[in-house]
Amino acid sequence: MATVSQLPASCNLVCTVGNDFTLTLAVTENGSTWSSTGATLATDIIARDGTVQATDFTTAATDGQVTLTLTDANTTALGVGVYSYRLSVTKSGNTRDWIAGTLSVVEAGIGGTTSSSVALAITSTSLSLDINTLVNGAAFVRANGTISVTRNSSGVVTSVTDSAVDETFTRASDGRITAITREGLTKTITRNSAGQVTGVS
Fold it and tell me: Is 144 or 169 the better-scoring residue by pLDDT?
């Protein structure tokens, strides 16, 4: 059976109670910079029981960019919990939810990865996201695309490609990783005679 889907792109958000939160969408439409002229933005934050919250995102739009913001007072007013949210855009008489997902407001003191920029590509039939994520000080792209794994004749993984990110592992004859190359940058792993990692350069 064929399925026609015009669901919004899925993007889950996490923020800390009492902290400011900003999400920036870099928007293209049919491969070109999206025009904000005539566009109206609307958002909802919805509790688990279906109640639309009085606290909502502040939105802003310029050509090629949409920003969603919660202030520290907003996240405090929401309180710790898991909500649903959506961003809807009306333009030229057409209304479409662009992104939707969960909004998790967590207690202070809980750590994790940090991301704030999302590339949103729009066509007449689809919405796709590329999320630029900062992990332990190293930026890379995590996308909604296909992850490809390459193995050698022995079944050992030699490379992993996640859309725009290419990562290659160099292994010794015993299968231990000796170097990792990501987007042209190589890190060499040194080990002692027992095989324990002694350094990364």
Answer: 169
Q: pTM to 2 decimals?
A: 0.61
> To which H or E segment does residue 87 belong?
strand 81-91
CATH number of 9-139: 2.60.40.10
Q: 109: left (phi > 0), else alpha (psi -120 to 50), else beta?
A: left
CA distance linking residue 40 with residue 28, whole number of Å: 17
Burial 30-44 (b: 16+ CB within 10 A, else e): eeeebebeeeebebb
pLDDT at 66: 92
Q: What tokens were used for 79? A: 């309180």
Q: What is the pLDDT of residues 70-112, one digit of tens each?
A: 999 999 999 999 999 999 999 888 888 898 889 999 888 766 6
Q: State in Å, rounded, how far the first CA of the chain is from the last one.
A: 53
Residue 34 near residue 63, CB atoms below 8 Å: yes
Distances (CA, A) of 72 to 15, 19, 20, 145, 193: 10, 4, 4, 34, 52
- What 3-state class would DSSP assign to 78? helix
